[in-house]
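One-letter codes give the sequence; each number marks local geometry. A record appears below:


***
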Amino acid sequence: MIKGQQQSWMTNNVNLYLFFYFSLPFIKYHNEYHFGTKHMNFERLPIEILFNLFDYFRIYHLFQLFYNLNSRFNTILFDYSRKSHLDFQSISKTNFDLLCQNYLPLFSNQVHSLRLSDDDETPQQTILFLSYGFHLHQFVHLQSITLSNFHSSYILDKLLTECSDLPCLTYFKLHDCHLSIDRNHASNLYNRIWNLPKLVHCYLDIHFSNGNYFPRPTCVSQSLEYLSFLNLSCYSKELIDLFQSTPNLRSLIADFMDYDEHFDLTFPMRSITRLKLSFDGSLIILENLLQKLPDLSHLTLEIINNYMNGYQWQDLIERNLRKLKRFEFKMRFSPSTNDNKDEQSNEILSSFQTKFWLDEHQWFVRCHWYSSDDHYQLDFIDLFTLPYAFQKFLSHTRCTLVKSTCLSNDDFWTYDRVRHLCYGSTHFINSILSQVRFSNIKHLSLSLPFNELFFSIVTQLERLTSLKLSINSKKNLESIPSQLQTLLHRTTRLHSLSFSTWSIDYLSILFANNFDRSIRHLNLKNFTCGKTCRYFNDEQCEQISRSKLGKQCQLLSIKLEHRHQIVYLVNRMSQLRTLNVRCQDDSWTNNELLSTQDELIHWLRDYLPSSCVVTRENLSIRIWIR
């Protein structure tokens, strides 16, 4: 590469600019310390420093910048790629095509972890990946694979078959997958997973459209030790079968729902040391289950519609769980009556104030008493250990009484393990819950206008990545613009912004605010005016495309009146990578599910650039643009 070409290449390549921006302090230090000079020589940097710098960049950017510059950089790149971790979840189509076509074949046999995602941001990614001729058996050193948002059982079957040829695979994850298969097909899927010879960790988050198919493999895995299930609930018999097919299981996360009082596990599961269970069933089953897990050291329980007092827990633990070190629970149940709240709560808490709870283990509990409202006709109680151990906190209704077994009323009010918060202003306005502090929220649902206590309760928003907003039309709306501006000013890592109930009169607020540059996903699909879903017209599409928020948006979810607005937004929103859209003039119905004649899909493929990937997900069209 001649000097003029180098200067042009360096000037036009943003990634190279960023690389040298991060590199300068390292280069300056290295040259001054090792060579006693302030002249910078990038190529003389040791490999260790280059590797540290490489960690700030995606692997495909590194190949763009340095591949074939010279033989030394080629050697360094391949050495760095020996433990590559490829996460394609949020990659642009341009970079995905570039990596798969030009660079991945060069180091596929060195990749250690791989994530493929067919979510709204990268639709049909897996099919595109396979169309480039890749097979999983090429990734001979692959140790971990994550498959996200899969809807095709055919593709999943194909990849699982290829997983059996991976000699190093120890981690397998299905995340937010939606499958339309029957029980026999599901059983075959589970058997393929349990037959992976070296698999140790398995995480399954699957929605089955035809039922709840909890794993009941007919084969035995001697290697599986860590199992997590989401959106899959089990009965007693299914759980027993799981234990029999996974005899070396050490950790289990699952949902249990069964009110049959028979639990016929005939052998203790001594290998299990960690259990996290969402439990909706008979307490007799729960006791019988825990009696068969004598080596438990960590137990987390979320119990629905049932209650065990402190004396019962103490007896169970002292008799059967002598190795238990950490015990976390939340029990939601209805009180015997809605009267005498103080007396009932004192009786509940007194059973958790024995020497066993307060002195031996220092396990403290708190009681929230929620009064009935329009949604809940009966009072209910949340009783939980402290500190609060769960990721979600949903303020459903009025909390009218709070008591705990803490030595001081000021203890354990910081709920820093909560990641998902649904903040109802009216639920926090009294002095009871106003003491709670949330400092690590990542996902927030909030109605505007909010009360003056919000920023003292949600003390930090720096970690917030997704925000869902709505308007409470029954309140004074004059403060909404200033509140929205203040809120967004504090959210430096916000990636996703979505709206639900929102007055059309306040649409302009969304595009007048100085939104943070980190926002890349704008979801207007649930935008409603009153009870009517809002389909955006030509004028509003123009507003979106001209706004600062529209100019930085990479993923847009929206409902449009006419199909030509899709073409308009694709052409006008220069940063838009993916469009998820529902069109009012779409004539497609569910009856056409098996039809290859999708009129709107064909129309879009004619009018959009040929590089766009256009697919349908029920009534929604997903377009991977660039």
